[in-house]
């Protein structure tokens, strides 16, 4: 899932004006930038940060859903959820590999996640309290991720764009399986429908926050747009998501928890769109800074996985070294 | 870390000097990375008659585990026929700065293309 509108990027770059202009000319000509080519330090740094955040989000994003694998209500649901969570692990790996082409090691990125230096999407710091949350995550969280990720397939950095193409091909199943869960619950007993509504109530606003801070607060966005790392602003993507998702909620017979939500004919250059209520950005920043409901548990789970896996990594390397040292057996 | 082998560009006065340097550099990078789980490049051949194509990389301690990881990461859905894994440090790539010297000469040899030759329209099967 889920490059959140990038948090805390520093796009400043110290190269000569000529170098930066020549680089910009390549970007403007829609050339892709490849790993060992010359690039401004600010470009490299911004990408390492963004791809790293994105990779960490995929990996941490396995935790809230993994929580329900053993309790899925049928074998069909269990197989689907298992496959989805495995996909998210794969997404993390494609993205770590893309970041590594910029000169940072996997080990370093893992350390940055565990130390809290690197961020991941705020959405994964909310708990999954009921089975309906699995439906809401697939529908809303993967839905928001798709909005975010489709334009990234055209990102100027080749390895990131290629990883995003792979990822986008897999995301559609995630959203559809989630919406199918919501459809089933919404058409079920009164209690099941309440569960679905409760999940929508809790996941709606955090999903809107996934697009990152409002454009008025994202200082480094302009440089990222000029470098074609980012193709749409946070607010543009958020608006697209609301416009696409509200009719899907209507179809479920559920109500979006926003009493200021209203159709506005004049929006989107006359095509129409939804006006929606204000987002609680203080909640967003407190979650990003580590005080969301599940931040500590999420990092603790990643730390445990890293520590528990240490002997496996060491044994595998020792085994490989031993085998490499052995003389080749005679044929 | 063993001392880095020095090969200056003057000693290697050929268009492939960069490639040889890259090879030496890759080797010394490999030595520095001891203790890190090595990186492997993954090439996947789809069913049908297509060639293996680079699709990404994985970390693994040895070749067998690299193949296993590549299967899990890059062949979860696709109709795959075969996978290659190659230690990333063993890949010798042309230098981006050498791209002009290596590849531009091809662009002014239009006589290598069939449309360069004038054949009357009424000649068939050509
Ligand atoms: Fe994902
Ligand atoms: Fe997903």
Q: Look at the structure and name the CATH superfamily of chain B.
A: Phenylacetic acid degradation B
- Any idea of the CATH class of chain B? Alpha Beta
Oligomeric description of these chains: heterodimer
Question: Approximately how much beta-strand content do the residues of chain A carry?
Answer: under 5%
Indicate the proportion of strand residues of chain B.
15-25%
Provide the gyration radius of chain B in Å: 21 Å
Helix content of chain A: 55-70%
Secondary-structure map with pairings?
The complex is a heterodimer of chains A (331) and B (126).
Chain A: H1 17-28, H2 41-60, H3 62-66, H4 75-100, H5 106-115, H6 131-152, H7 158-186, H8 190-209, H9 221-226, H10 234-252, E1 262-264, E2 273-275, H11 281-291, H12 295-325
Antiparallel strand pairs in A: 1-2
Chain B: H1 17-32, E1 39-46, E2 53-59, H2 63-74, E3 80-87, H3 99-103
The structure holds fe (ii) ion (2 copies).
Description:
The complex is a heterodimer of chains A (331) and B (126). With 331 residues, chain A is an all-alpha fold. Helices cover 64% and strands 2% of the residues of chain A. Chain A is built from twelve helices and two strands. Chain A has a two-stranded antiparallel sheet. In chain A, helix 2 runs antiparallel to helix 4 and helix 6 (131-152) packs antiparallel against helix 10. The radius of gyration of chain A is 21 Å and the shape is globular. The termini of chain A are far apart. The N and C termini of chain B lie far apart (62 Å). Chain B has one domain: Roll (Ubiquitin-like (UB roll)), CATH 3.10.20. Mean pLDDT of chain B is 79; it is low at 1-15. The longest helix of chain B has 16 residues, at 17-32. A three-stranded antiparallel β-sheet of chain B has the order 2-1-3. Helix content of chain B is 26%, strand content 18%. By secondary structure, chain B is an alpha+beta fold. The interface between A and B is medium-sized, with 25 and 20 residues. One fe (ii) ion binds at residues 1, 58, 88, 91, 167 of chain A.
